[in-house]
Design goal:
- With about 500 residues, the protein is of the alpha+beta class.
- It has three domains: about 1-25 and about 475-490; about 45-255, Cathepsin D, subunit A, domain 1; about 280-465, Beta Barrel (Cathepsin D, subunit A, domain 1).
- The chain has six helices and 28 strands.
- The chain has helices at about 1-25, 240-250, 330-340, 390, 420-425, 475-490, and strands at about 45-55, 55-60, 65-75, 95-105, 105-115, 120-125, 145, 175-180, 185-200, 200-215, 225, 255-260, 265-270, 280-290, 295, 300-305, 305-310, 315-320, 325, 360, 375-380, 380-385, 390-395, 405, 410, 415-420, 425-430, 435-440.
- Strand 8 (about 175-180) and strand 9 (about 185-200) form a beta hairpin.
- Mean pLDDT is about 75; it is low at about 5-40, about 50-95 and about 455-480.
- This is Peptidase A1 domain-containing protein.
- Keywords: Aspartyl protease, Hydrolase, Protease, Signal.
- GO terms for molecular function: aspartic-type endopeptidase activity.
Amino acid sequence: MKLSNILLVIFLLSINIIKGSTTELNSNNLNIDDIEHDQDGDFGIDLPLTIESRYSVEFDRNIENGMMTLKPTQPSNYKRNPLSKNIDIDMQGNFYQINVNVLIGQQKFILQVDTGSTLTAIPLKGCNSCKDNRPVYDPALSSSSQLIPCSSDKCLGSGSASPSCKLHQNAKSTCDFIILYGDGSKIKGKVFSDEITVSGVSSTIYFGANVEEVGAFEYPRADGIMGLGRTSNNKNLVPTIFDSMVRSNSSIKNIFGIYLDYHGQGYLSLGKINHHYYIGSIQYTPIQPAGPFYAIKPTSFRVDNTSFPANSMGQVIVDSGTSDLILTSRVYDHLIQYFRKHYCHIDMVCSYPSIFSSRVCFEKEEDFATFPWLHFGFEGGVRIAIPPKNYMIKTESNQQGVYGYCWGIDRGDDMTILGDVFMRGYYTIFDNIENRVGFAIGKNSKNSNVGDITDINQFDSTYYRNDGNKNNFNYLSFSFISIILIINLILL
């Protein structure tokens, strides 16, 4: 009896050791602390988007190994592109953004679509610090324009701060605002209400008109910014223009989608999910309570066979107003470390200057063809795969026909920002009714090898233990049984 128990214990312990070691080899989990350094609205609006270069660039092609230096230059050759459904603009710029055309007080503006802020802001006539040669909002040209007084219940916060007029309110004070953006720009101004017209649909909205701009606020890529953050759940913020449209048009639901394809085109669908923009099903993840942001909970982040702790990603938000993919400093540093350990054979990964410095770019797509995919997991079992063609941005220089491929991942602080690099190729749904964010494969992206989020076999489920959707075999049971048998052996 003792011999049989001993043999059984040895057998089970050996299985436990083998299973445990196999798991460790497969998961390659990276402990950063231990390393040094379908739903449809009744009515909706579909708007074409342009993808604009944020900076013109110059390339010096007289460098060996396919390396080209990248130099920001003055964007003197900027052109305002007409917005139409037939627009065909290549993805341009190491930093790029998506723009849309609207009418405010019957005055035309091109606005950047930004889900990371809430207040729509455009330059006000008479703003001395605003950039010249772009449209400005003139209240005198609109019969429906109203300057909001500080005493109004519509005088609310901008998302960055509360109105300063509330501190010294008097009968003549007007509602003011200030906004600080992540790129270092800052604006101050007054809050107005006026009529907005988007694709023939009109509503009364509240927005900011800039009297002071610090930094290159949207210039020259756009005239202003259209905030589409979350205000429906916060009564202390000026409602976004879309929230205002939803409140005044019962047929428009509080849901919108953004689709960026690989051909320089995109679409913004307001009030509905447009089935023409995606294939397969939409995978949803809940929005976390995080003020005006579309914050979602990460469950995993993997590169090749190495996974990074999800809790090292900090707060994660989906932000169309951010060009790049921004990782927390901890995750970014170790991502670079991983590249330099496993991809050093590729030029400019370990050599200087490096692609990570934003000073050089690859000349051909083949130069980074073996770069890894980035695999993200989110609460609810959502899995997103980002191919190298997303984070190596095709950049057109100011020399016609000259392109480069530039690193599109940035080092942040304690927040992960899923910008346009992340969203590209997917139809992203911002659902303020069910409080969730959805992802689906863009209709024209399937042949671009975008990660198929509906094909679970594409994502090795070994690396998604924390998302609650994998029925993991509990290897702890082996240890438990072994301990019981050892006790039994001792008692015998």
